[in-house]
Amino acid sequence: MDKQQVLDNLITGVVVVDAALNVAYLNTAAESLLGVSRVKSQGQGLDCLFGERPGLGRFVETLATGQGFIDADCDLGQVHVELAVSVLESDARYLIIELTPIDQLKRLSQDAFHQVQQQASQEILRGLAHEIKNPLGGLRGAAQLLALELTAAQREYTDLILAQVDRLTALVDRLLGPKTGPQRSLVNIHQVLERVRTLVSLQAPEGIRILRDYDPSLPDMALDPGQIEQALLNVVQNAVQALGSQGQVVLRSRVASGVTLQGSRHRMVARIDIEDDGPGVPDKLKDTLFYPLVTGRADGSGMGLAIAQSLVALHGGRIELDSKPGRTLFTLFLPMEDSQ
């Protein structure tokens, strides 16, 4: 495999400079981070990339001593990066500079943390479900036996008991999530979004508009259409409910590249945005909103977003939240191909 192709597929920016601190190479990620052209930068001084930041003296010292350094928060103007500098092992006349966006590091850390938290909450729920379902089964059996001894009029009460037992059992099953993995087939994600849009529009107040902004270049994807439809439905319904009687929801699809999901990097993923112009998610709920039984509404069950995150995770993806007053954005990332 071509070395340049490998470097260009990294999400970390890589710059190589010679002993005169002139640029010998930079990869695609570095071009994007620094806002420069690879062709135009080659042969130029390092200051054309960094200006006075982080100080060229440290690069000269690394060349002289062979001792690299790390700047954990290097301000490059429009972006903060972790900057790591070392001597190229195969040729000490060159330095290799690695640039990792700080927000990217935070996202990877948060992704790992959320995975652990989700697994922990699922284990707790399994134990809780077992403790609940056992007495519910006994209660249902007793109600059925009691109904045999009652008149038709009296059986109204046992029917009520049975209905409530079934409702609680269904709630527990929802807490545990799907019993089987995704049954994948090639799916047009826009057809799924349109079904969700139709369903939600039928129930939404007249003052709410649901708009579309689709990328027609998105190819068909290997998904479980029922599970993904349920995940999207839960998120869109949440957005509509947050608006009250008036507002706007936008369904948007895009292709994103070089995204890391569940520890694996994917060349391309589908990015599905559900954006509303509502009041926003309270700060105290942002870190726990996808946990079971967490809700910001008095009449909410706290299950919709937790189930959505679980279903998307089964497909190797994740849901992210970015919210402030006047703009709440839920983003679903779904792999479009095998991880790299």
From TrEMBL:
Major enzyme class: transferase
PAS domain sequence ranges = 1-44
The answer to whether the entry has keyword ATP-binding is: yes
A Gene Ontology BP annotation from the UniProt entry: regulation of DNA-templated transcription
**What SUPFAM superfamilies does the annotation carry?**
ATPase domain of HSP90 chaperone/DNA topoisomerase II/histidine kinase, Homodimeric domain of signal transducing histidine kinase, PYP-like sensor domain (PAS domain)
- PANTHER family, from UniProt? SENSOR HISTIDINE KINASE, SENSORY HISTIDINE KINASE_PHOSPHATASE NTRB
Q: Which reaction does it catalyse?
A: ATP + protein L-histidine = ADP + protein N-phospho-L-histidine
Name recorded for this polypeptide = Sensory histidine kinase/phosphatase NtrB
Question: What role does it play?
Answer: Member of the two-component regulatory system NtrB/NtrC, which controls expression of the nitrogen-regulated (ntr) genes in response to nitrogen limitation. Under conditions of nitrogen limitation, NtrB autophosphorylates and transfers the phosphoryl group to NtrC. In the presence of nitrogen, acts as a phosphatase that dephosphorylates and inactivates NtrC.
What the entry lists under Pfam families is as follows:
HATPase_c (PF02518), HisKA (PF00512), PAS (PF00989)
Keyword set includes Electron transport: no
Key words of the record: ATP-binding, Hydrolase, Kinase, Nitrogen fixation, Nucleotide-binding, Phosphoprotein, Transferase, Two-component regulatory system
* EC number in record: 2.7.13.3
Q: Annotated Gene Ontology MF terms?
A: ATP binding; hydrolase activity; phosphorelay sensor kinase activity
The Histidine kinase domain sits at 127-338
